[in-house]
Amino acid sequence: MPELLGVPADGEPVAELWLGTHPQAPAEVVEPAPRPRAADLGARRAAADLVGELPFLLKVLAADKALSLQVHPDLDQARAGFDADQAAGIALGDPRRRYRDRNHKPELIVALTPFRALAGIRAPATTLAIARGLGHPGLIAAFAPLATDPTGGATQVLRSLLTLPAQAGVDLAAGVVSAAERVPADADAELRRAADLVRLLAATHPGDVGIAAALLLNDVTLQPGEGLFQPARLLHAYIQGVGIEIMATSDNVLRGGLTPKHIDVNELLRILDPRPTGAPVLRPRTLTTGPGGLLRTWVVPVDDFSLREAVCTGGPVSLANPSILLAVEGEVEVSGTDGSGTALAPMTLSRGCSALVTGSATLRLTGTGRVFAAGPPV
After folding, report:
1. What is the DSSP string of 349-368?
2. Annotated catalytic residue: which of 98, 255, 308, 351?
3. 201 with 294, same domain?
């Protein structure tokens, strides 16, 4: 993360950078805009003071170890769940709190490095073949409902795993790890990848029954530039890599393993979509291209946000109505006009620098570098 942002490393792990107005970690704006990295200059104001509450949150995510298995609610589930938690008197800071706001949380991550993730329930036949290949009796028994109920069996599997007595869960996880270590080098690719996943998860989450639950999911590795869209109710986990993430402004997370945090099994399974699905991998769509660079986006089926990337090879690249800019490579000069046609003061964004654009604007990007732009749907 420090390398990406162009700042010195202090030896402490840095997993996320948030750019937005979410009350848990609202961004500040330095006024007037300083030269790059001069973050100690100018007056600071909360971004929300300038643009109100943004409907999206932009993040830089650097996962060195697997994040929790989790599901996000849809809008109706979020509203009902928040009201229920409020009525029950569960404080927002209570570890048992399930819904911290009334919004849904669809999200898109775009890989900057190879990025491994789990997303969506995979084909039951594949999961059952992996269980048989590992040959652990407890795992085979736990996954048996997939054979009799291919469209809903994942719910039964997760319930049986997540409600195991603590020591039984530890024992099952240990047994699955031992089985993975015995997978031969000439096994089929799907089984070898599953064994690799088990070993990877065990290194950072030893004894967590989520190691077994993770085998239910599609295991994908995004290449740089590819995206992964996580709609509501889809079980997923980010395993390893660096990416740019954008989501609706929400912190509603129902966890299902690979975490020491609270797991509400009943609520998780109530909002989960247990149907098998392919991993929703997205490839970028080019919006404009020319000798000076290109502008591309990742099309998602929600109206909370859009994410575009300007790849400048001299420029100019035109960009209309962004809200947040984040440079991840090189150095780009940003100029343009606001909605009334008045020229905006130019600024330079180098790697790790971000900017807030208020109101409507048409920007002109020149130089050599890459800039992500978060904003409303385009």
Report:
1. EETT-EEE--SSEEEEEEEE
2. 255
3. no
Asked if residue 212 and residue 350 are part of one domain, the reply reads no
pLDDT (tens digit, 9 = 90+) per residue, 31-81? 654 433 323 323 344 444 434 578 899 999 999 999 999 999 999 999 999
Q: Which residue has the tokens 């395993």?
A: 239
**Within this chain, do residues 255 and 309 fall inside the same structural domain, yes or no?**
no
21 contacts: CB under 8 Å, gap ≥ 6: 27, 46, 47, 48, 51, 52, 53, 54, 57, 249
Residue 28 is predicted with a pLDDT of 80
The secondary structure of 212-260 as a DSSP string is HHGGGEEEEEEPTT-EEEE-TT--EEEEEEEEEEEEES----EE-SSSS
* Span 270-286, average pLDDT: 95
Across the chain, how many H-helices and E-strands are there? 11, 19
86 vs 73: CA distance, rounded Å: 17
DSSP label at residue 373: E
Name which of 226, 223, 129, 237 is nearest 183 in CA terms.
129
Question: Is position 98 annotated as part of the catalytic site?
Answer: no
Q: Global pTM?
A: 0.91
Domain count, the chain: 2
Structural contact between residues 219 and 197, judged by C-beta atoms closer than 8 angstroms:
yes
Q: Where are the alpha helices (DSSP H) in 135-226?
A: 137-142, 145-148, 153-162, 166-181, 189-204, 210-213
- Among 266, 282, 298, give the residue marking a domain's end: 282
Question: Looking at the structure, do residues 184 and 117 belong to the same domain, yes or no?
Answer: yes
CA dihedral 256, 135, 173, 182 (to 10 degrees): -130
